[in-house]
Automatic annotation (TrEMBL):
Keyword Oxidoreductase listed: yes
EC number: 1.4.1.13
Region forming the signal peptide: none
Protein species of origin: Blastopirellula retiformator
Similarity comment: family membership: Belongs to the glutamate synthase family.
Positions of the Glutamate synthase domain: 142-457
Tagged with keyword Calcium: no
Protein name: Glutamate synthase [NADPH] large chain
Length: 532
């Protein structure tokens, strides 16, 4: 009798939990895996205690450690993201550990309620994108933190929708990834349109680039800039890859590709074959649309970059921005050897490329954008000190919308509904709720970047130089980052004029900042158009 009663209670509780889990919209894992999904949260909750006796430390897991994931999860919910009891890093035996050298007299960081406290923590870019080449629609990016390219196909529709609405809320751009523009990209966020070797959305029946279609796509959507993808850090030298398991009817229509087989893009572009032709292509796209045009690439051999910087210095052509993706970057699917062994890590690759642009004195003409695990305050600030004007985040943004780092993106079975086209799994992801998480995460990252900059005595992260960084080794040495990277501290700064303008913007009363961002964008354009 007792056994029956207990069994009955268990069944009733299980049914109640199932109904609750299916009904709620907060947690995709519970919606997709009612009842058993709770085990994940229970294990997560007792993780710290468990880990004292078994398994990994807070800093061991990769690509993102438990501490990093916890920080993103808490930030995206605007929960307490502080850590107690001091660092759990072993500073004295950590290799390549970044140390930020604060100023003795930091700048005050306004608190809630104080004058000029900005709850969105806006940090506009110190440069105007497209200004140097005088593009008709040059603009000052409103946010130094933006959402990196991840296409519809590799991510689900609800995930793209969440990223797009989140980008609108956070005032940043949303890079489409190479899969073209889907209805999920049209939820109000500014777009950076990416075109890869597959030219999805702007290709003819033979898969070649189609200028007419490209112009139509740009005109019909809120495209602020165009990024030509040469390569990405996780798989440079091989084209984009979408496994057939993820190619639905809708994706096949949007991309213009057949179903039933994997979609593998070519490794190289058919629209150009060297730097000279690439610059002609860039100018053609910019002339046709008026928007800034840039490139994205991982860093391997250096000849390409020297050639590009040299041709930009010598001819009247140029890319408006360059995104450097680190070899540690993410992907939906890649061959292991390419993910592990091809292309330099961000810090080394970016440093080398930037030096070439300094050598030819064209570094101030380009907006430098970086990606590759830069969605954390210390790595983001370091990238900006090296010379980045903006940073883009991909997997960190995925974490903010519920990714649990299960690393099954390539299988189509993402349990969180983020990287899947399975209808049951993706329906668990509520795009409206998760869009707030993206916006909160982006705003929190900006908040921490601002805080760190002020701690270093600068009003904007682009004004923090490499002099503020040391790198620890495991022999009690702290080596100046300028020495390690063979980089003069002032190289990473914008031009004197851009420095003055961004200082003026960041120290203006909060109510005037938005208009200054716009006015300065226009003024700058006029200066360049008039040949200044
Ligand atoms: C699921 C997924 C899909 C991606 N798709 C693209 C893409 O279409 N085009 C691209 O240039 N990069 C793509 N990337 C790379 C990211 O844009 C980014 O460069 C890289 O992940 C490094 O940033 P992160 O460390 O913040 O993730 C993708 C990454 C992920 C995780
Ligand atoms: S499969 Fe795993 S790693 Fe990939 S998006 Fe989903 S939860 Fe994240």
């Amino acid at each position: 009798m007792w056994t029956l009663t207990i069994l009955g209670v268990i069944v009733v509780v299980a049914i109640a939990m199932t109904v609750h889990d299916l009904w709620q919209t907060k947690h995709a894992i519970l919606k997709n895996f009612p009842v058993i999904g709770h085990f994940r949260y229970w294990l997560e909750a007792i993780g710290p205690e468990l880990r004292q006796y078994i398994v990994t430390s807070n800093n061991e897991e990769r690509p993102f450690s438990r501490d990093q994931r916890t920080w993103v999860y808490a930030s995206s919910k605007r929960e307490n993201n502080y850590f107690g009891f001091g660092t759990d890093d072993d500073l004295e035996s950590s290799t390549n550990h970044l140390i930020i050298k604060h100023a003795a007299f930091p700048i005050h960081d306004p608190h809630p309620g104080e004058r000029d406290f900005d709850q969105e923590f806006r940090i506009p870019c110190a440069k105007v994108m497209g200004a140097y080449r005088g593009r008709r629609h040059a603009f000052r990016p409103k946010s130094v933190v933006n959402v990196s390219g991840m296409s519809f196909g590799s991510l689900s529709g609800p995930a793209i929708e969440a990223l797009n609405i989140g980008s609108k809320l956070a005032g940043c751009w949303h890079n489409t990834g190479e899969g073209g523009i889907s209805p999920y990209h049209r939820r109000g966020g500014d777009l950076m349109l990416q075109i890869g070797t597959g030219y999805f959305g702007c290709r003819d029946s033979n898969g070649n680039f189609d200028l007419g279609k490209f112009k139509e796509v740009v005109a019909a959507n809120p495209v602020r800039a165009v990024e030509i993808k040469l390569s990405q850090g996780a798989k440079p030298g091989v084209g984009g890859f979408l496994p057939s398991a993820k190619i639905t009817e809708e994706i096949s229509r949007i991309r213009g590709i057949p179903r039933g087989r994997d979609c593998a893009s070519p490794s190289n572009h058919t629209a150009f074959g060297d730097v000279d032709q690439m610059l002609d292509f860039v100018e053609m796209l910019a002339d046709a649309t008026g928007v800034p045009v840039g490139i994205k690439a991982a860093v391997g051999e250096m000849h390409f970059w020297t050639d590009l910087a040299e041709q930009m210095a010598r001819t009247h052509r140029g890319v408006d921005f360059i995104t450097i993706d680190g070899g540690e970057g993410g992907t939906g699917a890649a061959p292991l050897v390419f993910a592990d062994h091809v292309a330099l890590p961000f810090k080394i690759g970016f440093g080398r490329v930037y030096r070439e642009f300094v050598k030819f004195d064209v570094h101030h003409h380009v907006v430098f954008n970086g990606s590759g695990k830069l969605g954390f305050p210390e790595t983001g600030l370091f990238a900006m000190a090296l010379g980045c004007d903006t940073i883009s985040v991909a997997r960190e943004a995925m974490l903010s919308i519920g990714c649990i780092q299960a690393q099954r993106c390539h299988t189509g079975h993402c349990p969180a509904g983020v990287a899947t086209q399975n209808w049951w799994l993706k329906r668990g992801l509520d795009p409206t709720l998760k869009s707030f998480r993206v916006a909160n995460y982006v705003a929190t990252l900006r908040k921490e970047l601002l805080r760190l900059s002020r701690a270093c005595g600068a009003v904007h992260p682009s004004l923090v130089t490499l002099d503020h960084f040391d790198v620890l080794d495991d022999r009690l040495q702290a080596i100046a980052a300028t020495t390690l990277f063979d980089h003069r501290a002032e190289w990473g700064l914008p031009s004197a004029e851009d420095q003055a303008t961004i200082r003026q913007i960041m120290t203006a009363p909060l109510s005037d900042r938005d208009s200054l961002v716009k006015v300065n964008g226009k003024r700058h354009r006029t200066l360049v158009e008039s040949g200044a």
